[in-house]
Amino acid sequence: MDHCKQEKERKTKIIKENLSNVVPGEDDHDFDLENFKKRLESIRKELSSSKFFENLIEKLISLPKSYENILCLGLGRISSCHIALHQLSLLLELKTALRTNSVTVFDPVFSKQEKEILNSLECKVPEENMEGKYNISEGTLAYFPHCPHELTDAFLSENFTKEKLLKIVLLCNSFERFTTSEPSRIIEERAPFIGKIVDFSNIFEIENNYKFEDVFNDTAIHSFLEDKLPEEGTDFWDK
């Protein structure tokens, strides 16, 4: 089975109904753990010295934000997809560079072995699929690599207050590219909260200069600043 191709198709498919209707990953009977560790270490070393990572970290650190937590959704099959493995490497390098102790990772396709690997890397893997609706109470980097906009929108809907958005930085597919390439009807159907917040977001497009162009393409940093967001108590915040 070509898990990488399957994963790419899964992430780009338009999800109109329940986001939890994904078949969990099967255990990897022929998985070579030692080879995986070597590949991961090699990729992390190369990525951490790349211009892509340098630019990304420089921008994240420049923001007036704190990163007590990293929440990563939609990582994919890290044991069988090279894209997912590079995205995992970025997650781990972000954890190190931002000095973040709390990392939560979830994808319903993870196999039992993949969960064990992530736990060994000091990443928490919840059992329950929250379908993106994680409630934020501390400064959080939400890293959703190539996730469908519906998942990001569910996360925004759960945290759609000025107080909570000020604690969040989103590293995901560009809101601006999505809202300028789709008709308003599609935006309203698929991602109404992205449609509401895009004009009040600070969006920094990350140059796609990584060695593999299909790993971090369309990635952007989205942050929210006090003086740019509407005041609490206005109709804007109505759900």
Task: Walk me through the structure.
- Belongs to the SRR1 family.
- This is SRR1-like domain-containing protein.
- It comes from Megaselia scalaris.
- By secondary structure, this protein is an alpha/beta fold.
- The protein has one domain (51-237): 3-Layer(aba) Sandwich (Rossmann fold), CATH 3.40.50.
- 41% of the residues lie in helices and 13% in strands.
- The chain contains ten helices and six strands.
- The chain has a six-stranded mixed beta sheet with strand order 2-1-3-4-6-5.
- Strand 1 (69-73), helix 4 (82-97) and strand 2 form a beta-alpha-beta unit.
- Helix 2 packs across helix 4.
- The longest helix is centred in the N-terminal third of the chain and has 16 residues, at 33-48.
- The chain is globular, with a radius of gyration of 17 Å.
- The protein starts with a helix and ends in a 16-residue tail after the last strand.
- Mean pLDDT is 90; it is low at 10-25.
Write the layout of secondary structure elements.
Blueprint: H1 3-12, H2 33-48, H3 51-62, E1 69-73, H4 82-97, E2 102-106, H5 112-120, E3 140-144, H6 149-158, H7 162-165, E4 168-173, H8 175-181, H9 184-190, H10 192-197, E5 202-205, E6 219-223
Parallel strand pairs: 1-2, 1-3, 3-4
Antiparallel strand pairs: 4-6, 5-6
Helix pairs in contact: 2-4
